[in-house]
Each structure stands twice: as structure tokens, then as C-alpha cells.
Amino acid sequence: MPPELQSLFEVLQQVKGYVYPNEVELQWGLLVVAYPYLTGLVAGAFILASLERVFNVREVQPTYRLSLLTALAFLIVAPLPLLAHLGHPERCLEMFLTPNLNSAMAMFGFVYAWYLAVVLLLEIWFDYRKDLVLWARQEKGLTRLLHRILTLGVTDISPGALSFDFRAGKFITMIGIPSAFLLHGYVGFIFGSVKANPWWSSVLIPIVFLFSAMVSGIALVLVLFMLSSLVRGKEIDMPCADKLSSFLLYALIVDLSLELLDFIHRLYQAEESIKILSQMIYSRLFLSLIILQVLLGTLLPMIALFLVSPAFHRRGLVQVPAELRRLIYFAAAICIQIGIFSTRWNVVIGGQLFSKSLRGLMVYKMELMGLEGFFMSALLLLLPFVVLFVLVRVLPPWPDAEAHVEPQKP
Amino acid sequence: MRPQVTRLLVVFGAAIASLVVARHYLIPPTFGKLGHYRAAAVDAVAARKVKYAGHEVCALCHEAIAKTHDTHRHRNVACEVCHGAAAGHADAPTEIKPPAPRLRAACPVCHGYDPSRPTGFPQIDPVAHNPLKPCYTCHAPHAPETPRTPEDCSACHAEIARTKAVSHHAALPCTRCHETPQKHKINPSAGLPTKPANREFCGGCHAPGAPGPKEIQRVDMATHNQRYVCWQCHYPHFPELK
Amino acid sequence: MSDQESQDRRTFLRTALPAPLLLLAVAGKVDTAGTTETEADKKPAYQATEHNYAMAIDPIKCIGCGRCAEACKVENDVPREPFFFRTWVERYIIQTNGETVVSSPNGGIGGFSSANEPGILRTFFVPKLCNHCANAPCVQVCPVGATFTTQDGVVLVDQDYCLGCRYCIQACPYGARFLNPITHVADKCTFCYHRLVKGLAPACVEVCPTQARIFGEFRVRSSPISRFMRQHVIQVLKAHLNTEPKVYYVNLDGEVR
Q1: SS3 helix, strand, coil % of chain C, rounded to 5?
Q2: Which of residues 67-106 of A touch B (CB under 8 A)?
């Protein structure tokens, strides 16, 4: 008997109550949990970048290019867990060839392609074009070739051309913000539109997904910013870190409010599914929801940031030296990552742990090996950092790597 | 136009053009003919092999058995329920032979007593009912009517009999309240027993002046819950109130 | 010839001429006994547009023997492990203390063990299968058009086109779908479509000993379904989800989900 079927017999023993016979095997596992986590980081990182561009928040300017590259790295890796999860990955092109226009999932391909090509790549191109041209002039060998190709042959860096680049970038960022909302909002919609599943079916899910994406994206950029400064031996720009943590706190407050709203709404309405869902939360999701998502992932970082971040008070409610503040920011951001991953877990796996007969609970048995196993997902979650490393080498985002145009001699 | 714009238009244009061309070659030919799906898929499903031949096919060769079978109580039980899928046998009669169940365990799958089964469906207790004898000893599978007409109602209505046996109505024969034509024992649905229709029937024993021993509980029929019929509260096979 | 005679002649020709032509035409259509006819001419090809299938189930008649679930697995090569069912039978036991116990051991294949819960108020079996919804959520969510409703009202899966994304399995409110572990595509009841096109009944209907399952054509007067729908009070599963199921239940207890 194949090993996956063997584990199903073990799962069958742990089923509580009554579940439809076909429900014993959970359909969407760890790979499908990884996917909204990755796209959430994309959306969050991009929205952080757009804060600087559209809302002129100057303090976070050092993270602008890093956010864009982070978004790109995660966007490149995002479809991989889905591909690995398909029963027939070789048929994936069908989503572009014959998309069912009534299906939210079919629209994935197009929203993704739009976001990648028209928003992210174009914005990066417009922002880096000047530097690509100038770097190519001074480099040799492979790097020079690479940069020249990336310029797409447009080497005009006159003030007029540069000003066009700037305005184009701003325009793209402006359409990019709703596009980023759409990118991750529709992932929420893919779940939220499934009327068969009372845990998923909710008007609020796209919004909750979006704000938790922003929280995770900002936290990720904060961590990467601090780590990259350390690695490069540079002093961490505290005003930037403070501003990032302020935005993180605002997003966290909105995210918590939305999740609380969903929770209170469900409890108050007390629809038929409330009994089995409560049972599921207390028995199957206690660790991942109560402990990891709420306490460790939301409340703890929120309280910590509320106390030390200058979000509501110019120097923070509790003044601590910069070294301690950095540490708290870092720890809070890590807790938030764990919390947001748990959120995705609770939505995806949680939605499949109770039966649609509303009479029973299943279990999710995570494999270690195999495409659906723990190691594969861990690899896919680490891969974006590898991609980011490569991107950072090809397109350095650091302020001191920027090339400058020599002033024109009269 | 700005060189950036022209170059981007060229790049995007080339990408979109190649996608359009690729679509033409890659979309399956029958897609979209009948709807948003491959029309050839319907034919693929329709071309699957049939495994269950159906009772008409069996009757083509096994005429005598079919005639017997269709005039007795198993007439709605398809041949393949007991003999398994037989399309292979219908195509190659001498090479593939369907099995005939002989063990006692086969028949209780349908006829073993289970309270979830509908009342009136013939059920027996597989342990107590003629133990160790194969079922076909007494019941020909194609004409399974009981060899002897059951004398007692409890032969088929065992659960009711068991309930009644420990109640105040234990001494009453079933026929005291249910007029049962003889043919009910042979073809139950053709001759259904009667059921009492009104309070007065019960009053025949339970009214204050009714004949019978004084141990029978008497109740004033005129005032005791006169809007209801007796069995709305008192289950006749276990009439005591708990 | 006078005008009147000419007129009469014209009238005669106008009425008389078509008759021999008609006779010739009719003669041409009538086949001489079995000389040029082939087998294919005798049986007209199956026209999907002429049919619209539905099923009705009377749970009171079901004895929970599990023959339907077994026959389905045999007919359609469904893996025998207890996690993959195109149809299954559930048992409901509603107890006097208000609790409801539901079970479906191996989908009902091999029957159930005799219920011996204390204090049974009501108990019955309910056969379940894909409802072939007229407004199917699985068809709506399939990203590539691999699951679809045929012209005769049957929801099918294209095994050669399905990606195995499992969205349809999530979208089905009835738990009727599963991922086939051998083909790695979505799988479900097809109303035994390959039997329908040959004029046979689905395997589960064929073997049901008590006629708890009734199959037929929707809105055709001479179909068993039509009589059934006329004479009974009809319910469907999860009506509030507006999937418009085409499997109709009668005597469906309120506890059935």
C-alpha cells in the first residue's frame, strides 16, 4: 500500500464524530498554507515600498529598493508550492489557455502575471534603469552583460528621460497599490467565496488576509533591513527602523480589530456551524490559534511595540536605548512571522479539520518527506531568501551602491 | 514617444503575440464546442466498460430462473446483487462464471435484524434463526418465501413481540386489537391488518363499566384527555406510563 | 377548350400531381425488408440533448445493505480503501436524549452492525452521492473547465484535463468528491454515464433490492422520476446553499446533513 494511504488509516482512527467518508483525506496541506504566506509577504513588502513613493514617508526611503526586491523574490517563488501540490503539474498551462472565467482560482494566473509584469518588474526597471546604464559603463564581463540586457537597450539618461522614469515609477506605484491589494485579496476571496465551508465563507476574509499580509510584509522588511545592515557592517538607521515599527503597529492594530470583529460576529450570530467550529478551535487548533496566532503572534508583539515604538508618542511610551529597541523590534517581527504563518495554517488546515456534516473533526497528519512533506515546504519557504540574495547581487539596493550621473559640463 | 515606452511596447507586444500563437496550438481541438470543456471528454467517459450486465441480459439466457425469480419475493433483487457483476460472464459465458453465495453470512447483510431497517422488511436474528443451517436449506434463493406459513406474528414482528412481552399487554394476543386476514402471512402488503380507530375500542376493556377482571386499569373515558386518541400517549405495545 | 375547362384542368393537375410524387417519395423512404439496413441504422445514436437525468431517493426504503456502494466501486474501478467513495450510505440514530449519532463504516459496504444504542427514538439509513447540481459550485470553481455539466444534466470530470488542484473538492458541500489516488485527478459519481448512453441504469440503481433509489428523466412524463415527484413531498440536501441538486429525497429527516 502506498505510504500516503497507510497514513490515512491512522488518521481514520483519530476521527471524532461523523465525517463524510471522502473527507478523511485532507486535500490542501502544508504547501497550500505556504502559498498565501508567500503572496502575503509580496503584497506587504510592496505596500511598504509604496508608502515611500506615494505618501512620501522619507524615513523609510532606505528600504524602498529592498522592499521591491523582496517582493520580487517572494513573487517568483510563490507559484512553486502550488505547482508542487497539483496532481498534474504538467497541465498547469491550462489555466492560461482555457481559464474558467467564473473561477476565482483561474484569475490567479492573470492577476499574478499582471502584478509581476506590469507592476513589479516595471517599477523595478524604471527605478533601476539609470543605475543599470551607469553600472554597465563601468563594469566588465558577465555583470556588464547582465546589466546591459536589463536596460532593454534604453540607455538615455538625460534629465528628461530620468524625470520620465520618476513619473512613470510613481504612476506605476499608484496602480500598484490596488494591484497589491488585489493580489492578496483575491487569495482571501478564493477561500471566502466557498459557500460550502462555514469557516472560510465570510465577507471579511479578503480584508483580513490583506491586512495580515501587510503586517507580515512590513515585519519581514524590518527584519531584512536590520539583518542586511548588520551583515554589511553598517549602523542600523534607527529613524527608519522606528518608522517601520510604527507602521507595523498600525497595521497590527487594524489586523487585530478585523479578526476580533470576525470572531465576535461569528459568536454573536451563533449559526449552526458554531458548535463544531468551537470544538475545533479548542481541540484541534488550540496551539496554532490561541497560542501562536493570538498570543505570540499578535498580542505579544503588539504590546511590545506599543510600549517602545514611537508610533503614538514621539519617543515611545517607555523609552529604551536604541540597542534594546532594535532587539524588541527584531523579536516582535519574528513573532509576527510565526503568528501570520499560523494564521494561514488556521485558515487553510482549520477549514478542513471539521466535517461539512458539522458532526465531526478530522486530523492533519503532516508528512516529513515527499512533495507534501515538511522538508519540501521548509525548502520552499527558504528559497525566496536565496533568490533575494541573487537579486541583491545583481541589483544592489543599498543607498551607497547607487550610481550618480555626472553633472553636465556646460 | 519616449524610448522607454517604445521599447516596453515592443517587449510586451512580442510576449502577448507569442501567447496568442501558443494558444492556437495548445488548446485541445474539441474545447468549447459544447461549453467550457473538452467535448471529447464526454465520449471518453461514455466509452468506459460496463461491468454490471443488468437483469434483462441475464434473463436472455436464464429464462426459467428469471421467470421464477420475477414471480416471487426477490423479484426486485437484481441477479447481480447476489451473483456479482456479470457483464464479463454475459460476454464470455463459458470462461467467466459468476459466484453463487452459499454461506449463511451472505443473507443477513440484507435480512439481519437492525432497528434502522424499515418496519415490515423481513428480518431475522441470524444467531437464533435456525442456527448452523445454510439459508437455502429452507429458502430457495429465487423463490425465498418461507416454507411454512408462520403461525405467530412474532416470526416477522419480533421486536414488537419482545416489547409487548414485558408490558401490561403481554397476555393479549396481537389479533385482539389487529384483525389479520390469513393472506397477510403469505403476502403481507396485500392484506394489511386493521388498527383500532377510536377511543371506544380501548374503552372496551378500560371503560369503568367494561367487562373483564378488576386488575385492568379503568379510566373515565368521558373526561380523560377526551381530545386525544389513546395511543397518542400510550404506546399500545407498552402502554404503561413511565 | 373553354376557360372553365382550362381552369378545371389546372385545378385537377394542381391537386392530382403531388399525390404520385408523394407516393414515390414515401416509397423511397420505406426500406425493402432488411436488404441495405445496417445495425447502426436500427439503433439511433445517443443524443444527449434529448435527455435530462435526475435521481430520487426514499431513505425509508433503504435497508443499509451497502450493495449500491459496493456495486459502484466495482462498476467504476474506484479504489477499495475506505477514503474514496462515489456513493455511500449513512446511518442516523436519533436517541431519546436528543443526541444524534451518524456513522458510515466503509461507506456502508458490507452492511452495518445491528444498532444497539440505548434509547433509540428514530433510526434510518440515508444513501448519498453526487447531487449533479444544476447550479454546481464545483463547476463554477474549476479553473480550467475540467469539470462540467453535460447537455443531459450530468456533471462529469475530464480525467485527461483535470489539474488536480482540488478546488472542486473543497467547493462541494456534500463531500461527494475525492482525489483519485491512482489517476491524481478529481473523481466522483458520474451517474454511470457510460451505462446511461447504452440505455442502462446506474449500477447503484440496478442493484438496490428495495428500490430506494429511483432514476429517470426529468420532465419526461413516462419516467419513474416524474411519478415520484408528483406523489411525494420532495426535499434536497442543503437547499439553503442554492446548488439546485438533482437528487431528490423524500421523507428526509431534519437531522440529515
Answers
A1: 30, 20, 50
A2: 93, 96-98, 100
Mutate to test the interface with A, among C101, C140, C161, C163 (most CBs of A within 10 A): C163
Q: What is the gyration radius of the CA atoms in chain A, in angstroms?
A: 23
Sign of CA pseudo-dihedral B198, B204, B207, B209: positive
Pairing of strands C247-250, C234-235: antiparallel
d(CA C140, CA C155): 12
Contact call for C85 and A27, based on CB within 8 A: no
Does any domain span residue B76? no
In a domain? residue B111: no
Nine cell digits for residue C41: 441504422
- The CA-atom distances, in angstroms, between B221 and each of A275, B167, B168, B242 are 47, 22, 19, 21
Note whether C120 and C144 are within 8 A (CB).
no
Give the pLDDT confidence of A60-86 residue by residue, as tens digits: 889 999 999 999 999 999 999 999 999
Cell of A207: 480584508
Q: Which residues of C touch A23 (CB under 8 A)?
A: 175
The ipTM is 0.92
Does residue A406 sit within a domain? no
Work out how many domains chain B is built from and give that number: 2
Question: C180 touching B, CB under 8 A?
Answer: no
- Torsional sign, CA B92, B96, B100, B106: negative
The answer to whether position B17 is within a domain reads yes
User: Residue B5: what residue type?
Assistant: V
Q: Show the domain range for A365.
A: 31-249+272-396
Task: Say yes or no for a CB contact (<8 Å) between C81 and A21.
Answer: no
Beta bridge partners of C234: C250
Interface test with B, best of A90, A94, A148, A154 (most B CBs within 10 A): A154
What span, in angstroms and rounded, lies between the C-alpha atoms of A308 and A306?
6
User: What are B154's strand-pairing partners?
Assistant: none
Query: Does a structural domain hold residue B195?
Result: yes
Question: Among the residues of A193-321, which ranges form H helices?
Answer: 205-231, 238-269, 274-283, 300-308
- How far is the C-alpha of B45 from the C-alpha of C69, rounded, in Å? 20
**Partner residue facing A8 (CB), from C83, C88, C173:** C83
Residue A13, in any domain of the structure: no
Give yes or no for a contact between A136 and A151, defined as CB atoms under 8 angstroms apart: yes
Contacting residues of B for A123, CB less than 8 Å apart: none
Q: H/E element holding A360?
A: strand A360-361
Query: Which pLDDT tens digit goes with each residue over B78-125?
Result: 999 999 999 999 999 999 999 999 899 899 999 999 999 988 788 888
Nearby residues of C28 by Cβ (< 8 Å), 6 or more positions away: none
Out of A22, A190, A197, closest to residue C84 by CB: A22
CATH 3.30.70.20 assigned to domain C49-250? The reply is: yes
User: In chain A, which residue's Cα lies nearest the Cα of C88?
Assistant: A21
pLDDT at A42 over 90: yes
Place of cell 404506546: B235
Three-state DSSP state, A378: helix
Q: Which subunits sit against A, judged by 3+ Cβ pairs under 8 A?
A: B, C
CA atoms lying within 13 Å on the CB side of residue B15: 10
Is residue A388 domain-resident? Answer: yes
| Number of domains forming the structure of chain A | 1
Q: What does the alpha-carbon distance between residue A364 and residue B230 come to, in Å, rounded to a whole number?
A: 54
Q: How confident is the model at residue C236 (pLDDT cuts 50, 70, 90)?
A: very high
pLDDT one-digit tens code per residue, C46-62: 888 889 999 999 999 99
- A15: in domain: no
Shortest CB distance from A153 goes to which of B7, B32, B36?
Answer: B7
Structural domain range at position B33: 3-46
- C122-169, pLDDT tens digit by residue? 999 999 999 999 999 999 999 999 999 999 999 999 999 999 999 999
